Structures are given as C-alpha cells and as structure tokens.
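Memo to structure team: turn this sequence into structure tokens by end of day. - J.P.
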Amino acid sequence: MAIFKQKITWIGTVVVLVVLVVFGAAMMGSVLGTKPKDVPVALVVLDQAANLPNGGTLAVGEMMKMKLTENKEMPISWTIVGSEEEARSGIDDRDYYGALILPADLSAGVASLAGPEPKPATVQIIASEGLNAQAATVVKQGLGQAMRMVNADLSKSLLDQMSKMTEQVPISVAQALLAPINVQEETVHAVGTNNATGNAPGMLTQIMWMGSLVTAMILFLAGGNAMKGGARRLSTIAMQPVAGVVITGIASGFLIWMASSWYGMELAQATETWLFLWLAGATFYMLQSALLNWIGIPAMAILVLLMFFSMPLLNMAPEFLSSASHDWIYSWTPLRFVSGGLREVMYFGGLDEVGSNAAALWSIAGAFLILLVASGLRKAKAPRGEAVIAN
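Reply from structure team:
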C-alpha cells in the first residue's frame, strides 16, 4: 500500500491519461468516423433525345442527370461539363476524382431495345486512382451502384411496355433488357505495382520526415560540441543547413533506390521523384533544425507530435475528413504538401505537374532557413554552476 501513498504514482497516472488523450486524438480522432462527402465528379451529358414509334420522345440522359444531381444520399458533388475532353482535362488538373460520360446515343440505344435489333449504349465511368485511391473506389462503387439502379428501373419499365404489346420476347431482346445500358469503367493515373494501393506518397513522406529529424538532431548535437570546443556560434549554425541539404539529398536518393530495388516499388518518374523528395527532406530539415536551435531538445516532443497528428491524414482525401481534422491539422501541416506533391510527381507526369505544393515547400524552407540562421545571433547561455569572474 505504500506505493499508493507516493505522489509520483498519482502524478504518473495523470501523465498516462494525458498521453492516451494526446496520442488517441492523433491516431484515432483524425480517422475514426470519417466518411466521404462532396467528392467532386464531372458529369458529361451528350445524350440526344430519341423519337419513339408512338410519336413521343425518350431522353434518358436528362432523366439520369436529374436523378443523379438530386440524389442527396450519394457522397458526390457533381459538376456539369460540356465534353469528355473537358472532363478528362479536369481530372488531369486534379479538379475531379472521376467522371461519368453519358454518350450521345444513350436514348437511341435504350429505344432500340423494343425493336428486333437491340443496340444498348455504353456509359463510361472514369476514376482517377493517382489522386486518391480511396476516393477512386468511392467513385467506382457509387456510380456503379447508381447505374445498376438505373438499369433496373429501365428494365422494369421496358418489360412492362413490351408485355402489353406481345407475350413473346426474342432471346436477344430479353438478354438486352437485363442490362439496358452497358457500363465501362476506366482507371486513369494508375498507381502502378507495389505502391501500397496508392499510399506510397504518404509512406515516403513519413520515412523522409524521420530521416530528416535524425539528421537535424545529429547536426544540432554536432554543432553544440563544436561550439563547446571554441567554434563561433554563427558560423557553426550557418553550416548546419549546408550539411543538412547534402545529407537529405543523399538520404532521399537512397530511399528511392531502396523502395524500387529492395521492395519493387514501380516508379515511372524515379529521378524526378527523388528531386522532389530531396526538396521535401530539406524543408523538413530546415523546420526541425530551426526549432531545435531555438528551443533545444524539448522541440523533439513538438516534432514527434506533429508527425503523429499528420500521419493518419496523408493518404486520405480531404473530402473524407471531419471539419476539425481538415481545418486544425490538414490545412497547415507541412507533411501534406509533400504527400500531395509526390502524388503529382509519381502519378500525374513528373515535376512539370507540381504546382502549389512545391511553392508551399519552398516558402516553408525559406522561412525556417532564416529562423535557423537567426538563431546563431543569439547569445549562448552560460552553463549552470559556472562561476562568473569579475575583473
């Protein structure tokens, strides 16, 4: 019982609970309960209304457009575009996770099912796997389910109409009536083999963060030893970013080589991926080294927490996140700029496709480089217990 009378026992219990709260929020709070919402998808309606033998018209495209856009249960935000080329361009520009293309002969194909030579039209579903694999799955599953519902409704309606005209239905027509509209799925910006189902950018980001953190810690300690040996503070700290950039360049190159050679990761843009990862590593190093030089060893706690809070978000589409996770963490964490930039390099065509993510990293690197060098202008604190000798 004596152990329960010790203050440290109860203080330790509180510390354990605080640790569980912090790391629980980092590892679970950001991902549990998340669900897709307002996933941007392009809708292209090229369908031309078809004339029916009874004098009426059939406009399947407009009917589908109305049903899809008015359906509030689907986690999709529709954008109506005028052509397939415009939709594909939007996917390439990372504006949409996918597209649904309703062809010009959609109504004519459905109307043909009542005749002797049915020719069902083909609707196209396009999903961008490279932008986010989870969102691409949502697009395929959501649109696939919608098309099955549309097919079921059209099949029932056509069977009811034909039963009034004849009791016998040709086999070819009966088969076509099972699926009045054909569905073709296409995946663009595929992630390739051994890319952790599209999560490789987030994985590389996490590993590079740890490599840069070790680099920052080693050079911080080395700088401290050099200054104890008589080296000037400003010149010593000024050399840290130079050494850091060199080491992160070597580390990022080794990481790319290890991923492809040891683990078979398919990297269509290996050199450009290395160059961007080098920028990422250098940015991480500037941030980490600046905090270490200004705050000291306690900065490690901040940096480790930043990593743990950021990790669950790196491979998730922002549309999947809660408002709190999106606004309080995702919107500003530097790790997400790296993960997003790597997706652009690896799956969208290389460095030419990198936009705001690279600009954000250059800005972060520049700001923390200034802070790092500025820390060299501070006066070093005298060690505790050191006697001050007056003249």
